[in-house]
Amino acid sequence: ISLKRGGGGCLKNARFWGDVAKDFFWKTKHTGQFLDYNFDVTKGEIFVKCMEGASTNISYNLLDRNVHERKLGDKVAFYWEGNEPGDELTVTYRELLQRVCQFANVLKSQGVKKGDRVSIYMPMVVELVVAMLACARIGAVHSIVRRSLPSSLFLPLIRSDGFYRGDKLINLKLLADEALQKCRDKGFPIEKCIMLKHLSKEAEETSLGSQSPPAKRSCPDLQVPWNPEVDLCWHALVRGASDECEPEWCGSEDPLFILYTSGSTGKPKGVLHTVSGYMLYTAATFKLVFDYQLDDVYWCTADIGWITGHSYITYGPLANGATSVLFEGLPTYPDVSRMWEIVDKYHVTKFYTAPTAIRLLMKYGSEPVQKYKRESLKVLGTVGEPINPEAWQWYYNVVGERRCPIVDTFWQTETGGHVLTPLPAATPMKPGSATFPFFGVVPAILNESGEELEGPSEGYLVFKQPWPGVMRTVYGNHQRFETTYFKKFPGYYVTGDGCRRDKDGYYWITGRIDDMLNVSGHLLSTAEVESALVEHEAVAEAAVVGRPHPVKGESLYCFVTLADGVTYNRTLEAELKKQVREKIGAIATPDYIQNAPALPKTRSGKIMRRVLRKIACDERDLGDISTLADSSVVEQLFQNRCCTAV
Ligand code: PRX
């Protein structure tokens, strides 16, 4: 490793990443600078380009290269573990390559071309990875959906019939049909839908590799309405497709995927990542941060629909030829030992999860963990939100039995991969600190006036130069990209997080400093939840704040002012909850809704969220509230606080 952490001039940086690039296949070499960029809005348009002029294909590098050059064809790529214990499937690199080629041919036969956008709405099944890599193979841009479909995007949609989450059946087909209707209503008809039958009857008869799908997976009664003009069956299409497909050679800066993430204005942003830089960055961070070795069995419990799953289930591990567990279910089903049972079953060595999952399992004590040996574990990782020291200690002492270093990885959908992180066993740990920057990443802490602070300090976390995996733009709105990340402090990428640096130079993330909430490691914007609430005819105004939650980190506390003549009652409360859930997703379900006949506002009409946060937490030290137009509102809200979750 030739690059100092947190530093390295441009030349050294290029040399380091150039060495990483040597492991990969390039159809043509790059012609421009290795990493070219402008981070200063005052000097022109913001851009980042990595290896311009080179061409490659990421699916070729993840699959063909591993099968043919590295002779890893018989190595297991995924141990798929279904929701139901006993449902399992093993897929080798060779099989994965065949399946990806088959499905790439299917996409081509449906008219999908390089540059087309393909939306994917599927549960945690191997076919989800197949669909992503098939898009990448033909140069199509995937966008995995976790919430309502952005209507302007897609040519085809790939989805599944349904899946079980614990003992709850989720009918994805009906959800997707509703979303498609909305797209049609807005004048964006989706041309084709390819549907994977995962639970319904036909799934049992189809070709999931050489192994027959386990019986427990099926749900013959699942209602799957079928529209022959739009709906196509995955299995029927794949059956006739060739398992060879020449990859489409893509430019380094061609788009690889779009992933929507919450924006503080309430409108989700389509974060766009490109081929080469993202490949190098996810591959290198995976290898070094998890100290990846060829005989490791790695398990990341995230959903592939989140960036963690993109970077550290699909791209990073496969780029290294890693063997991973792909888990469809929940940590608490059928009981709270499920995670540890899976660790023993597959001899998992590297394990990556979120603080919210750790806190959830911590509630049940150490006995469900100690029922299993966990002897194989070597490195434990966390991601998604600051990990509180209690959860860190429990993870370290109970799960890892004080043997396994913890890598607390700080990063974002936008950063593509880890940016602040320990290296296991090499970085002395401090519980709750993401420690130091990854190679080539240069952080700074700024004060409100944009001055860089030296030594121990606290302020805005920013980055001074790009790394290969940083996002390139907000899909369809480059101006929004510049405004969101580069306008506040010209010359820096602004993360939106607060950060403290201690006397030893360790970085400690203190949480978001914009109007974003972090619920179970998932970012939500308050504006987004507020607009879902005010779309209900009974609501005149809404204000949402975060309230600390022992498992989720933060929960949603919503204040609603009702329209004239409407009375507040439990039925309305349930309707509002449902409305937010349907508009945004289950993760955004409000925990508290308070009827607020008036909201605390300044004389200029701005809602004082700071005061609302205090009310939500029942903290009376309000600080200076002299700018409030009517301070009696505050007392009224304190008196009617919600003490129990709805
Ligand atoms: O606030 C930080 C928090 O999660 C945000 C990024 O969320 P998202 O784009 O959904 O990506 C999550 C998975 C990478 C960050 O701005 N965050 C993420 N990891 C950590 C964290 N906060 C503290 N410590 C972390 N390790």
Characterize this entry briefly.
With 646 residues, the protein is of the alpha/beta class. It has a 7-stranded mixed beta sheet with strand order 5-4-17-16-18-19-20, with helices on both faces.
CATH class of the largest domain: Alpha Beta
**Ligand set:** adenosine-5'-monophosphate-propyl ester
What number of domains? 3
Q: How many beta strands in the DSSP annotation?
A: 31
Average of the residue pLDDT scores: 90
The CATH topology of the largest domain, please?
Rossmann fold
Report the principal-axis shape.
globular
Radius of gyration: 24 Å
The percent range for helix content is 25-40%
Main sheet summary: 7 strands, mixed
Distance between the termini: 52 Å
Estimate the strand proportion: 15-25%
The strand line-up of the biggest sheet is: 5-4-17-16-18-19-20
CATH superfamily of the largest domain: ANL, N-terminal domain
What CATH architecture of the largest domain would you give? 3-Layer(aba) Sandwich
Q: Enumerate the spans where pLDDT stays under 50 for 5 or more consecutive residues.
A: 148-153, 204-212
Domain AMP-dependent synthetase/ligase: 70-473
Family: Belongs to the ATP-dependent AMP-binding enzyme family.
Domain AMP-binding enzyme C-terminal: 528-606
GO cellular component, one term: cytoplasm
